[in-house]
Design goal:
Layout (H helix, E strand, L loop, with lengths): L6 H24 L37 H14 L3 E8 L5 E4 L4 E3 L5 H13 L7 H13 L2 H11 L2 H11 L16 E3 H13 L6 H11 L16 H4 L5 E11 L3 E10 L5 E9 L3 H15 L6
Antiparallel strand pairs: 1-2, 1-7, 3-4, 5-6, 6-7
Helix pairs in contact: 2-10, 3-5, 3-6, 4-5
Length: 308
């Protein structure tokens, strides 16, 4: 029979095993043995550093959008029953909420193209590519406030005609906008969706026009006159429909398109902080006054009480 190991030998073996276990655990957890000369770090319980930073609460949805989709669809259906082809887009810039009906339909935008003309002129001025003289500025103001066609033609020719549309379309990503086939600025075609996008990007600066120049455009639209320089009433649609809100608008109109259709376009920004953007177009076979009234009634149906 073999002899039993001494108590001393057994204790020594136990100590050596424990040491090996500790070294093995350290190597497994750190990958390399620690430097015996390096200062020892204080052991701290691991913290969860993957939690996201607190986010600001989202903007509250506008109460004016409650039921708006149904009211908009109803008003477009009512217009269709009267023979009118109407398209509408309403955008809340704070929340991104959008209501649109028929927004992809293309139509001539008439004097609303003066926005694009002004945009291109002011951008070139800010880039030093042209100079807007005091006389030019007065002409620009009348073009935007009172829809002066002569002013639009002057700037259109000066800026290269259809090239204006190509440049603005590229800067703002207006996929549904087309330069006029005959070179006449008033038959530039677009969609309500593109026009709403234009206003949004004009206001947030993402279309490339500096804020100072954008303020020139919006300041003039806020001073839109009751009639155009040709005497045509230009308060239809947004201004008369949202009578309890401050608005900055550019309107367009002419007769006739695709037969005897009256064309009316109403676009603009709404509210003291221009939170909302709206664009609507209508081709209406009835008379001019009836077509204007239908545009205004559409907005009133969407926003009873004249306020969002």
């Amino acid at each position: 029979m073999r002899g039993q190991p001494s108590i001393r030998a057994t204790a020594l073996a136990a100590i050596m095993c424990a040491a090996l276990l500790v070294v093995g655990c350290e190597a497994q957890s750190s990958g390399t043995p620690p430097d015996s000369d390096a200062p020892q770090a204080t052991v701290v319980a691991p913290q969860n550093n993957t939690l996201p930073m607190p986010q600001a609460p989202p903007k509250a949805p506008s109460a004016g959008f409650d039921g708006l989709d149904a009211r908009t669809r109803q008003t477009v259906a009512d217009a269709a029953n009267a023979g009118a082809d109407m398209s509408v887009v309403m955008l809340d810039r704070n929340t991104g909420q959008t209501v649109s009906v028929g927004s992809g339909s293309s139509f001539p935008i008439a004097s609303v193209v003066k926005l694009f003309i002004a945009d291109e002129l002011l951008l070139r001025d800010s880039n030093g590519e042209t100079t807007v003289s005091p006389a030019d500025r007065k002409t620009l103001d009348v073009m935007l406030r009172s829809s002066d066609d002569g002013a639009a033609q002057t700037f259109w020719d000066r800026l290269g005609g259809n090239a204006v549309i190509a440049r603005v379309k590229a800067r703002y990503g207006l996929g549904g906008t087309t330069a006029p086939w005959n070179g006449h600025w008033d038959v530039t075609t677009s969609t309500a969706s593109d026009l709403a996008r234009y206003y949004k990007m004009l206001l947030d600066g993402s279309g490339g026009l500096p804020a100072e120049q954008a303020a020139v455009i919006m300041g003039n639209l806020a001073q839109s006159t009751p009639t155009g320089i040709d005497g045509y009433p230009q308060r239809f649609g947004i201004p008369e429909g949202l009578y309890a809100e401050p608005v900055a608008v550019k309107q367009g109109w002419f007769c006739c398109w695709n037969g005897g259709n009256q064309l009316h376009v109403s676009t603009g920004a709404i509210g003291p902080d221009r939170r909302y953007v709206m664009a609507m177009g209508s081709l209406d076979p009835t008379g001019a006054a009836a077509a204007r009234d239908r545009m205004t009634q559409a907005v009133k149906t969407m926003f009873p009480g004249g306020k969002i």
